[in-house]
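Protocol step 4 of 5: obtain the predicted structure for the target chain.
Materials: sequence only (see below). No template structures provided, no constraints applied. The aim of this step is simply to have a reference model before the mutagenesis design in step 5. Sequence pasted as it appears in the construct record:
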Amino acid sequence: MKTKSTIGLALAALLGCSLVHAAGPQVNIYNWYDFIAPDTMKNFQAETGIGSMYDVFDNSDVMQSKLMAGRSGYDVVVATGDLLPNLIKAGVLKELDPGQLPNRVHLDPAILAKMQSNDPGNRYAVPYLWGTTGVGYDVDKVRAILGPDAPVDSWDLIFKPENLSKLSQCGVAMLDAPGEIIPIALHYLGLPYNSTNPGDYAKAEALLLTLRPYIRYFDSSKFITDLANGNICVVVG
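Step 4 output (structure tokens):
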């Protein structure tokens, strides 16, 4: 299955007051749902003596709105790289102190260079991870519905309404991230994924609207367990 690669996630320090008055040192963190292991923060405190207040989100718009409102109280936030220009311009990020980041020298120079399009000079963020957006599917259910020649190695599985309408009977979910889904639709149409032509986006919109009746829900985390439990059979995520 084709995937869209993203070097999207960056660790950024934020300006703001503390959310709570802790008895000892504490770091306040805002991260995507399911991005670290359950015992990570406990192990961090055992090793450093620093406590944590850990909040999660599953939608970039929610995260950005909370930060833009000001005085969020978070010390660290994990944000997609494309949001950095707006956050930097709004003044909600604090410039990093390289002297406090000794392991920064081990970061991949190629990724740091790529990040500079969103964070010139790498002043406000460091790369945390990168990944791909692709299609997850239940092999047995998809082939039972579309047959043994189901186009599981092509975006046709998703973007041809005649396929998606049939798959809707076993449940189709889609990532709640227009910044990921729209470029994929543009690419599928043979258009630049980062097009600046409004007409291209109108074509992508028209394509996505033909699919909307067959999408059970949009979310950024729920589909993980739903696909594993058989509640859905296909997800773009």
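Step 4 remarks: The domain at 4-132 is CATH 3.40.190.10 (D-Maltodextrin-Binding Protein; domain 2). Confidence is low (pLDDT under 50) at residues 1-11, 15-21.
Proceed to step 5.
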